[in-house]
Amino acid sequence: MFSLDQRLREDCYVVGRFSLSLLLLSRDANYPWCILVPERENTYELYHLSEEDQQQLIHESSRLAEVMDSVFDADKMNIATLGNVVPQLHLHHIARFKDDPAWPGPVWGKVPSKAYQPDVLESRIEKLANALAGSGFTALTEGADISSVTAPAPRIDC
């Protein structure tokens, strides 16, 4: 049974689900920062996914990056899978701007994490969910705490 890594549960808000992946929003408001997590048990690397799931993840990642680039008018989209701290397979999608606090370097550890103001959080999640609507994406409870996410479900009530 799929279970979301504790660190991801603590560090993110849920936005919705694609057919393969859970879509999360990082709690760090310094950047528009989304994370895709394939809902597959014991998956730590891309090659742990079936060939079909690999293709689906690439499709979901490309769709998310395209939407984030459009919605946030990014100068550059950074997409990365590291797994050094959180071993569960997850793909970071970060909209970068030439005037962001870490540009042009990586975002990790550059500046302290910044909490979202409630209205900014709601707006960011709404923009993403609306732009991704349809084509295999389902929005979940806006801004929901994902501490209880353990398995795919139609809705998350937290």
Automatic annotation (TrEMBL):
SUPFAM superfamilies according to UniProt: HIT-like
Source taxon at top rank: Bacteria
Domain HIT: from-to ranges: 1-103
GO molecular function, one term: catalytic activity
Signal peptide stretch: none
The protein's name: HIT family protein
Organism of origin: Gilvimarinus xylanilyticus
Lineage: Bacteria, Pseudomonadati, Pseudomonadota, Gammaproteobacteria, Cellvibrionales
